[in-house]
Design a protein that fits this description.
Helix content is about 75%, strand content about 0%. The protein starts with a helix and ends in a 5-residue tail after the last helix. The chain contains nine helices and no strands. Helix 1 runs antiparallel to helix 2 and helix 5 packs antiparallel against helix 6. It is mostly helical.
Length: about 180
């Protein structure tokens, strides 16, 4: 549900509304009694902070985006959480942290984060993170795009081709701007 709502705001470039919605949800989580599932609350909080970073990145508020990612990282690194329970949130967080590194012209950090996210997604989900593929086109607008990044994304496309699912391949080609 959170991803769908945030994607709605993201796709319609309603970034300020997205930030407000995420903050409202975070306030509700913080103000609710803690007798529920703490892992679920941590997962949701981490995801909301990462979405807050996405919206701030699109408003060119790099510092605020970085702060959201730091809070999300602190949540994900909580030693009381089962690392397997927060793996999807960690993948999402690494993708967005990589994008922030790109916008800060740090291609080495970007490649490291995107590679870690991709390897983790491959191991856990058997495929590349769809959000990484979706967000690829936004990397093209600036930052530290290098030959290594193009080579890396070509490798991901090769992996998708190996899967043999025409729908998945079509989605990747369309997202990358290759399909018509």
């Amino acid at each position: 549900g959170v991803d769908g709502l945030c994607m709605f705001y993201f796709r319609r470039a309603r970034f300020s509304e997205g930030i407000e919605t995420c903050q409202g949800a975070l306030d509700a989580i913080h103000n609710s009694p803690s007798n529920g599932d703490l892992t679920q609350q941590a997962r949701l909080s981490s995801r909301l902070h990462t979405w807050g970073a996405v919206f701030n990145l699109n408003l060119e508020r790099m510092e605020e985006a970085g702060q959201h990612l730091q809070v999300s990282q602190a949540i994900l690194n909580d030693p009381t959480l089962d690392p397997q329970a927060v793996v999807q949130e960690r993948i999402f967080w690494m993708v967005i942290r990589g994008i922030l590194s790109n916008l800060r012209f740090d291609s080495a950090a970007m490649l490291a984060d995107l590679d870690q996210a991709n390897q983790l997604s491959q191991r856990v989900n058997g495929r590349t993170s769809r959000f990484l593929t979706f967000y690829w086109r936004f990397l093209m607008g600036g930052g530290a795009i290098t030959r290594e990044v193009y080579t890396y994304m070509a490798g991901i496309l090769t992996d998708v081709r190996r899967i043999g699912d025409p729908f998945e391949l079509g989605c990747h080609l369309f997202t990358l701007g290759i399909g018509a």
